[in-house]
Amino acid sequence: xxxxxxxxxxxxxxxxxxxxxxxxxxxxxxxxxxxxxxxxxxxxxxxxxxxxxxxxxxxxxxxxxxxxxxxxxxxxxxxxxxxxxxxxxxxxxxxxxxxxxxxxxxxxxxxxxxxxxxxxxxxxxxxxxxxxxxxxxxxxxxxxxxxxxxxxxxxxxxxxxxxxxxxxxxxxxxxxxxxxxxxxxxxxxxxxxxxxxxxxxxxxxxxxxxxxxxxxxxxxxxxxxxxxxxxxxxxxxxxxxxxxxxxxxxxxxxxxxxxxxxxxxxxxxxxxxxxxxxxxxxxx
Length: 284
Known about the structure:
Helices cover 21% and strands 31% of the residues. The protein is α/β, with parallel strands linked by helices and 284 residues long. The chain has two domains: 2-205, Alpha-Beta Complex (Spore Coat Polysaccharide Biosynthesis Protein SpsA, Chain A); 220-281. It has eight helices and 19 strands. The model has no long low-confidence stretch (mean pLDDT 91). The chain has a seven-stranded mixed sheet with strand order 5-4-1-6-9-8-10, sandwiched between helices. Strands 12-14-16-18-19 form a five-stranded mixed sheet, with helices on one face. α3 (86-92) crosses α7. It is globular and about 60 Å long.
């Protein structure tokens, strides 16, 4: 399918809900399970034959220089210099690169973990049998107060971070601040052209401190995920400890970023630690 399909990872946003973690680090480069969210997205696409700058693009705006340096030659990077254009505007800004192909669009903050089995089947339900004409949306059951949601006979569903867009839709998008909900999904829903594809694995929008912590704990599979060059002389349970971090105190249900430090008299719980002083609570 890769010959008629390309992919875009949306990575331009300011990550306001995740501040102060994103004040100096763009959200796509925040680590989950000691792997940057953007790297997780690129690896997921590669499992389906979508890799390299001819097939994969990343949009960037906020702290774009960090995104460009991190991606390097692995994908086409398109910077939105006037500020983020939104999900639909970001796709439209890459229309010349898409050049008539269908496009698989993924949010960089989407944490997806496939159900047990072949991890290459991660996005297969979304891709298999696509006719190149209808809009497809990967979905999971919705929770309270979630927007947007889409009704089905089995209950409402919401986006799981990935969508398939035909060229006929892409070519009509505007390169201005617009979103896929209003510009694509709702019109396709009204016209009967929206297919809701269930995702069988785990999904978290890791854009808030609470969900970011939960994504990390899921990646740790209920235990402690500790980088090989981290130094732990204290106790660690249900946590992720990044590269070069030092833990001398107690850490439980928490994330310590690369290079972070937890002192001998500290107990870090339900929080994210950056450096030696920044602690971001993740309870709400």
